[in-house]
Known about the structure:
This protein is 28% helix and 37% strand. It is α+β, with helices and mostly antiparallel strands. The protein folds into two domains: 3-77, RimP-like superfamily, N-terminal (GMP Synthetase, Chain A, domain 3, 2-Layer Sandwich); 88-157, Roll (SH3 type barrels), CATH 2.30.30. A five-stranded antiparallel sheet has the order 7-6-5-4-8. The protein has a three-stranded mixed sheet with strand order 1-2-3, covered by helices on one side. Helix 1 crosses helix 2. The longest helix has 18 residues, at 48-65.
Amino acid sequence: MDPASKIAELIEPSLQSMGYEIVRVMYTGGDRQILQIMAEREDGTMTIDGCEEVSRTVSALLDVEDPISGAYDLEVSSPGIDRPLTRLKDFERWSGFEAKVELDEAVDGQRRYRGKLIGSEGEDIVLLTDAGEKITLPFADLRKAKLVLTDELIAATTGGSKS
């Protein structure tokens, strides 16, 4: 199991009991090791106080379990406006907005897609391309996905409304 998955498994129960959901855990090694944790409340919000609370809890858990050898920097944040889409429910929640999706395995000879999220069907992600083509992609093959920063997204996340 890779370090990020091991850490996510370790911290998830405590964060859930505090009312937080993990959006992403990313660990980068090298000269400066960084452990990045993105989390939010079930309603999609995250405050500075929330980041501090998650940071204290994660630090305490990692001090006891010690899953990372050597020094590392812990970064706790909200997913932000152009957030990563890591859970199937993210594709439902952000339907109607533009996203970039990259797969591990090509579908119809292509691994990278960009389009408007329609949502999900079963265990698949559904996008609408600029050409109006509906594309179904297997969530199990998702490498990475994120929302594209658009005026529509900014308006929706800052109190405006979708067009």
